[in-house]
Amino acid sequence: MSQPSAVKPARTLSFVDIVERMPPSMIQLLTVLAPAIHVMHHALLLVTWRGGYAMRVQSWILLVAYVQLCLYGYEVLRYAPQLLVLALLAYTWLHRSCARITGHRRASDERGSPEQLRRALVELADVSDFVVAMHECFVQPIYDVLTWQVPGYGPVHLVLFLLVTWPVWLLCMLPSHMWLTHIYSTRTDLMEWLGGAPTAWAHRAWAASLALWDARIAPHVPSLCFTAAAWLQTHVVPHLVRAAAWLTSSPTYVSLQLWPPFPIASLSVRHVLLFVGVLLLSWCSPWATLLRMALWRSAFVRHSVMWLVHALSGSETLAASLPTPKAPLTSRPRTTQHETPFVFEIYENQRWWIGLDWTAALLPQERPSWSDSDNAAVAPPASFALPRSTSVLLPSSHTTGKSDRRTSEWRWVDTEWRVAGVVGVSSSTYTPAASTTATDAQREEARQRDSVEVPDEVRRFARPADLPSTSMDVDAEGWQYGDNAWDKFSKQNGMGRYTRRRRWLRKAVLVQTVEYGV
């Protein structure tokens, strides 16, 4: 019976250790892509409003630039696309000039340097954390709903929601000239509203006010108030009269849309892109975070959101899992953890000998008795061990002067190995005979796996749990029979079948923990 591997102490890897364990081709690729990684990381800081006051100013500039792009992007691309190239040339010229004045090194001067490689590793780790978080929170749930992989009636509710909102979408997006009936609106002229003779009307109103003043109010007001009124009559009233005359003489109209009301027949794709983009770019801003926290304290808002989530997903547990007002929505945790499930696959190989039947005694030039999918030697289930934990310290991308500890740890999910395609056959019920024990090479392989960290070798016999496995035609015990050259496999045993194999599976999970600012 196989036992779970003992917990081994985590090894702390430095930057030099990481570089030594990376293949030269990976280092070369990382060096070439370092500028692109830096741009992605800088864009991530802008979108998430991190990096201090200077980055927040740049985030505001990005938000304003996106609004201008939505409003005037089509016109610029249609009538003056040369402005884009000119703007890019101006930006690069200013960047080079500032770098020359401040004495900063250019990216071309740092290419291939250890500082660039270290910075690329740190920025790539930060981008990876963001991508993993987006995948878990948004991409994977949406993909599960679209592929009917969620329990309940989530996809059905989504279909109903789309069918109900489609007429509303058409009402809002169709232009007014495409309607079957006219969209009636009233246009009110300011000249008619003011009586047709604005200048005369203003003078009559002023004369009436003066008569009222002289007859009833003036005798009871001190001389100071009378002086102020005279000043207003001399300096203010003429300007008001001229302004009223200009408004009424200009062709100014006030259009009031009576039917249909806003936003019906008033929106376009540009408005949708503007709204969605501004919402996404400002989602992580401090003021948007404070506004969401204030709104989430409202019971009406919480119940409305929970009802909408329940209506779309059909799951009460998903709606109940929304955070309470006491739990901050956007506070960044000090420690994050991500689990990736894998399935380990190893093959048991046997050959048929006259007088010996099926045994693990194979020819020297062929595959070993226990191998991976590429016929390389691996340890049998009884001595198969997971890679031990690793801990890496990298400069923190959130706190200056501190480091982020990234720990990777393997854990078994299944208690025993099992045979693919067979129910009830596991390593707990399998007792190898003397002829099927591990060879010296396999024992050495197991010892090396226990003593040396070789994460790349896991890829030989492990695959992500969400990827489908290779289909095999097996018999009741999971065996697949082939000819003398280990070819033409099928579940039929008989004449001409001298080799056989079966696949053993066991699930494990890779737990990746990130501690920020240690």
From TrEMBL:
Peroxin/Ferlin domain residues: 339-420, 478-511
InterPro entries: Peroxin/Ferlin, Peroxisomal_PEX28-32, TECPR1-like_DysF
Biased composition (Low complexity): 430-440
Entry keyword Membrane: yes
Major location (coarse): membrane
Top-rank lineage group of the source organism: Eukaryota
Location within or outside the cell: Endomembrane system
Ranges annotated as spanning the membrane: 26-45, 57-74, 155-174, 272-296
Keyword Membrane among record annotations: yes
Residue spans of biased composition, Basic and acidic residues class: 441-452
Pfam families xref list: Pex24p (PF06398)
Membrane topology of the entry: Multi-pass membrane protein
Region Disordered, residue ranges: 430-452
GO (cellular component) term, any one: endomembrane system
Key words, A-Z: Membrane, Transmembrane, Transmembrane helix
Stated name of the protein: Peroxin/Ferlin domain-containing protein
Taxonomic source organism: Malassezia arunalokei
